[in-house]
């Protein structure tokens, strides 16, 4: 029987003593609180890394990760994500970014995320006037996905590591065996392409 | 930055949460990259094997013809190639330490005669078996590239395949602030070629060697900055300087070879611009 991509992902993340994603999801569906412990055991470091890259604060990151388990418990079921790690990572990312915005409003904290956001400003299209309504969030997400699928795999991966995972250049370079300059140049070019793509769509962010 | 732009950037960041999970899962995998250094090492081994075959064939021919002079020349070329190979290892170990590279440069420079550093220099690599004499960079650029006579020594014949080009890579962020890295490069593998192909190969060699260098800038390098390539002879003089937009100097990491990734890039146009810059400096 041909294995689906989901099977490959789930099996590839299984290690000795750690449940497979399908087994963890079964615990959620059985409303067995062991699901949270198993999730923490398997993806605690992963989610903490995402939170820390945004917040650069241990306590805040821990809180976001704990909130992630609660959100996951409340949303599974009915959700049964194909990629549990990405599902949890997305929750953590959203929670972390909300906290980042609150801290920024209160003029507390710092971190590398400001640099990421500064870079993303380069992607803002010049089209549109201040009186035009910004594109709907869902539509913007759709466009970003469409854009990412036009990119070569390497460029797409680097872009996501930087602006989804908020990883630093050195971490990305280490992950893919690239040199620092290549990472920066790849990101610069991709940002330019995204801006051109959004301008071509004629949208206002 | 304006508040509006910041808000828009935040909106873009938030919208990234909706990225296709498959794309994110794909990005999780770490890739093993065949580094350029390993690729270059493999190429050197292949070049050495080829040289052995060529020398062996030459020896056999000369023995057949009873020409002892040609055999000794071939042997001298081989030992020169071996010697060069040791020096050539330096190219991949240079990590942007200017002092270290400068020392390596001066050590290697003592061993060889000066030679042309522009495209015409590649003319020296012609498909004949006779060793070529090497002229100084400036002198050679003034002739048609065919004759190489000035400054020749009895050892220049063996220097033909050992010649090293010293590339000084300069990242010019601000004309008043230069960040410099030194590296040794070689076009040994381009051996003996016809004039036409050698010219192109030489240009490619520059970018290939730039590609193999790890630049560790002291300031953040950004896309669009010019990279200045200086060809320095063994005397330490700048023989040629080529200024190329950094966007052209990209590499595809997985293949470990030089590849242009800019869709707007026109290799022939760039080569013409490089050659024009070289000729303008003559």
Commentary on this structure:
- The complex is a heterodimer of chains A (205) and B (282).
- Chain A is built from ten helices and no strands.
- With 205 residues, chain A is an all-alpha fold.
- Chain A folds into two domains: 5-105, Rna Polymerase Sigma Factor, Chain: A (Orthogonal Bundle); 113-201, Winged helix-like DNA-binding domain superfamily/Winged helix DNA-binding domain (Arc Repressor Mutant, subunit A), CATH 1.10.10.
- In chain A, helix 3 packs across helix 4, helix 4 (58-75) crosses helix 5 and helix 8 crosses helix 10.
- The radius of gyration of chain A is 19 Å and the shape is globular.
- By secondary structure, chain B is α+β, with helices and mostly antiparallel strands.
- Chain B has one domain.
- Chain B contains ten helices and six strands, in the order H-H-H-H-H-H-H-H-E-E-H-E-E-E-E-H.
- In chain B, a hairpin with a 5-residue loop joins strand 3 (226-232) and strand 4 (238-245).
- In chain B, helix 3 packs antiparallel against helix 4.
- Chains A and B meet through helix 5, helix 6, helix 7, helix 8 and helix 10 of A and helix 1 and helix 2 of B.
Keywords, separated by commas or semicolons:
heterodimer, A: 205 residues, mainly alpha, Rna Polymerase Sigma Factor, Chain: A, Arc Repressor Mutant, subunit A, 2 domains, 10 helices, 70% helix, globular, disordered N terminus, B: 282 residues, alpha+beta, four-stranded antiparallel beta sheet, two-stranded antiparallel ribbon, 6 strands, 46% helix, elongated
